[in-house]
Amino acid sequence: MADTAQTTTRTDPTxxxxxxAVRSLLRLWPFARPVRARLFTAAFVAxxxxxxxxxxxxxxxxxxxxxxxxxxxxxxxxxxxxxLLLGLAEALLFGLRRWLVARPLAxxxxxxxxxxxxxxxxxxxxxxxxxxxxQLLSRGTTDLQLLRMFLAFPLTFLLVNGxxxxxxxxxxxxxxxxxGLVLLAPVLPLMVLCSVFEAxxxxxxxxxxxxxxxxxxxxxxxxxxxxxxxxFGRHRSQADAFRKxxxxxxxxxxxxxxxxxxxxxxxTTLPELAIGAALVLGTLQVADGALSAGxxxxxxxxxxxxxxxVESIGFLxxxxxxxxxxxxxxxxxxxxxxxxxxxxxxxxxxxxxxxTPAQDATAAxxxxxxxPAPPGLVFSGxxxxxxxxxxxxxxxxxxxxxxxxxxETMALVGATGSGKTTLTAxxxxxxxxxxxxxxxxxxxxxxxxxxxxxxxxxxxxxxxxLFSATAAENVLMGGEDAQESDFRRALEVAQADGxxxxxxxxxxxxxxxxxxxxxxxxxxxLALARAVVGRPRFLILDDPLSALDVHTEALVEAALRQxxxxxxxxxxxxxxxxxxxxxxxxxxxxxxxxxxxxxHALLRDHPEYATLMSGEGEGAR
Length: 621
Ligand SMILES: Nc1ncnc2c1ncn2[C@@H]1O[C@H](COP(=O)(O)OP(=O)(O)OP(=O)(O)O)[C@@H](O)[C@H]1O
Fold this sequence. Notes:
The structure is a single chain. 39% of the residues are buried. α4 (36-68) packs antiparallel against α14, α11 (187-224) runs antiparallel to α13 and α13 (235-287) runs antiparallel to α15. The chain is 65% helix and 9% strand. It is of the alpha/beta class. The model is unreliable at 1-14, 345-370 and 617-621 (pLDDT under 50). The chain is elongated, with a radius of gyration of 35 Å. The two termini are 22 Å apart. It has two domains: 22-334, ABC transporter type 1, transmembrane domain (ABC transporter transmembrane region fold, Up-down Bundle), CATH 1.20.1560.10; 405-430 and 442-619, Rossmann fold. It has helices at 4-7, 21-26, 29-32, 36-68, 73-122, 125-130, 133-140, 142-152, 154-175, 177-184, 187-224, 226-231, 235-287, 293-305, 307-334, 344-353, 358-370, 420-426, 450-456, 471-476, 484-493, 497-502, 520-533, 550-565, 576-579, 599-605, 607-614, 616-619, and strands at residues 377-384, 397-404, 409-414, 435-440, 443-444, 457-460, 538-542, 568-572, 584-589, 592-597. Bound molecules: adenosine-5'-triphosphate. Residues 129, 386, 388-389, 396, 414, 416-422 line the site of adenosine-5'-triphosphate.
């Protein structure tokens, strides 16, 4: 996880490339496009409402210079009625705007969340190795909420305020240009201050949102690892880690608040000073008889009507910046290439990027490409290095050449950390080899799409992962078209039928988050049932019986033997009992397959294998 800090927890936003908030926000267009008609109508309605508010000072001018000056009560009532109607119209228009955007924007948020979730499912495992779950969670929740709020509020109001300030400025200049110039004097300095604010706030927002992601990771790990935390009494250290992050987040939030207070202060003070100066000048002009009282009232009412649009600009810019940061964070995930497509071209590129001289990789590949691969599961000159491994380290797997014939079961044996799990992970294309080729019944794995691979290959890992669903749903995940009879057969193979039937609602019983309401052995048996339910052509089992007691292991092995007889299987084995399920055994050592043969032949001829099987090698772990 060393890279996580670099890739996903960018707590130093100065490392980030300079970005334009507008360019970032424009990337939202494809999602906002379907509701563009509503968005534009809502913006138009809001502009209209704002312009209505600017008519109010003009009615006031008419009222003061007309009915009030002429002491005409009928006119004054009429003026009052006009003002009431205008106020009502403004309120109704703003209400209409809100109604227009609320529902479609909830839809935009849902569509973006769905797109993110779908994409995350399709991303390679190497992506998930690098990214912490908290960073993904915060992008799918808080960041998307920020985006919905931006589309609902700041996006419209930046436009509305801009138009209001423009129209108001023209009205001010038209009413009394000299006073208008006094009022508009702060516009330029405010624009400069706002652009400085925007740059600073953008960095602060990025830092905060990344820290929120880190915090989510800690909370999630604490919840999932609550048994370990309690078991080892790690409450205090966990709480310390949490407190450290919350303090860092608090510091960043305070910085944002300080910046906001600063721009809010400037946006309030400078216009207030200008209004004060205009009031003094205007009063002097009224006293000199150069200006009517009605014009001064209208002028000042217009100026006051412009106060909120000017003051709120800092706040709207802050929200827009947070939305731009949220957009960047969202697209950082969405821009990652998925692995649906066949990877043959990628393999060629990756091979060139490895430490192995290009001609070596090509040499290893060449025969495999020239001759069609035989049926079964074939590894030809396969090389693999984890993407985040140090660049000067040798590949974890080198020149793996192995042929598992159709219907054959091959056990894979090797010391801890020798790369057995990694080798098996290449078959369902959780990772792609950095060189060489794997073929399934003569078809190059790298030319198969994800769906095709899933249809051919099933896996059960040493660490069984279950989902918060029913026992049956967990098992049936292994075969889309599986029937009730397949389900029963899979349970029998995994010796899971007894305990599943004894659950309160049988197969329909919820197994709890990650299946934690079941024992380790029960989870492992359900995972095994999931692997065999779809009658896969190729079966990959990574030490699937490790959590079972000796008696259950013997029963599962007996049933598994029948399944293995009809499929081509690669089984990672640590114990002789599992090895005996296999027709032949491959010994993985130093990143290579150093021996292939029957269990007894290897025991006789290979001291390393004999040591591993005797359990002495395990002591070296
Ligand atoms: N996602 C990863 N990124 C980088 N290195 C990894 C990753 N997963 C495993 N490794 C490294 O690859 C090596 C082989 O790991 P692997 O899990 O394949 O071994 P194994 O033979 O299955 O071990 P065991 O028998 O203990 O299960 C280890 O040194 C491990 O640290």
